[in-house]
Write a structure and sequence with these properties.
Elements lengths: L2 H24 L4 H8 L9 H22 L19 H17 L3 H6 L6 H25 L1
Length: about 150
Amino acid sequence: MTGRAALRLIVVLLAGLCFGFGLSVSGMVNPGRVLGFLDVASGHWDPSLMVVLAGAVMVTIPGVLLQRRLSHPVLDQRFHLPENRVIDRRLLVGSAIFGAGWGLAGFCPGPAVASLVIGSGPIVLFVATMLVGMIAHDRFVGRRSA
């Protein structure tokens, strides 16, 4: 491994730790928070997810503005941005599946992985089945669409 590759790995690990720590501090690793945000009808609505999302937007906007001014990232040859800008059936179906899973379980991939440190059986099961779904998609659906 070259020095540049090692530095990239360290930066990726630090970014992941920072993200996971932020999810933990904000309480977003607790599926009850997410489900409380989605449950607007019960009278016990929890707006904390909206505050976390607003914070994420406040961090993202300067990052996007900086990215637009740079010709390439510091530790890579190019930015790896989505090239497909078409809203098609695959995107809509995938979004619906993601949203349904998030609404049913209260987890999306980031908080689920961050929650693995707790070691709870349901969390481990969720992440394991999420990985199986990702692998199945890459093996069967991903090949057809490539």
